[in-house]
Amino acid sequence: MVIGTIFGQRKGHVWFCFQHHRLSTKPSLLLELSIPTHQLVQEMSSGTVRIALECDHSELSSCPLHSVPIWTMYCNGRKIGFATKRKATRHNRLMLKTMQSITVGAGMIPTGVGSSGSEEIMYMRANYEHVIGNSDYESFHLVNPDECAGQELSVYLMRSR
């Protein structure tokens, strides 16, 4: 199990963070997705969301998946842009520190005094099952805490051949 956090400003792009420990402010993997936050929220309201991130095998065959710098991104089968691996900024680490006490949940984090509503950061944090298929495939699957039907979200990292 890993902790997965999806976050982003309402009018910004989505960030996806995986951590092995929720108390850590250093993510194991941090990706900036090209999908706008409001579009991902809309996709999630329909139920099942599958995000596939694909990289070219020939160019990056010796590179570990977590080190791939740029991915082609698909959401529910539609190509919607790219995802980029990022290093955590001071702002990212501060946001993760703010969320240390949250194990599972969704909500809004104000970005500071005097901020407008559009500056708030939307987030969803949950446990994910981390599956390593081989050196060319990994996936993360949202674990529903109450084991009932509901939000289903998976992220796939794939190196195409």
Name some characteristics of this structure.
161 residues, mainly beta, 9-stranded mixed barrel, 11% helix, Protein MIZU-KUSSEI 1, MIZ1-like_pln
Q: How would you summarize what this structure contains?
A:
The chain is globular and about 45 Å long.
Low-confidence stretches: none
SSE order, one letter for each helix or strand:
EEEHEEEHEEEE
Q: How large is the share of residues in beta strands? A: over 45%
Strand runs, count: 10
Based on secondary structure, the structural category is: mainly beta
**Tally of helical runs:** 2
Percent in helix: 10-25%
Mean pLDDT: 87
Protein name: Protein MIZU-KUSSEI 1
Organism: Gossypium mustelinum (Cotton)
InterPro entries: MIZ1-like_pln
Description:
By secondary structure, the protein is mainly beta. It has one domain (2-160). 11% of the residues lie in helices and 50% in strands. The protein is built from two helices and ten strands, in the order βββαβββαββββ. The chain has helices at 37-45, 90-98, and strands at residues 2-9, 13-19, 29-36, 48-56, 70-75, 78-85, 105-109, 121-134, 137-142, 152-160. The protein has a nine-stranded mixed barrel with strand order 1-2-3-6-5-4-10-9-8. The longest helix is centred in the N-terminal third of the chain and has 9 residues, at 37-45. It is globular. The protein starts with a strand and ends with a strand. The model has no long low-confidence stretch (mean pLDDT 87). This is Protein MIZU-KUSSEI 1. It comes from Gossypium mustelinum (Cotton). Pfam families: DUF617. One of its GO terms (biological process) is hydrotropism.
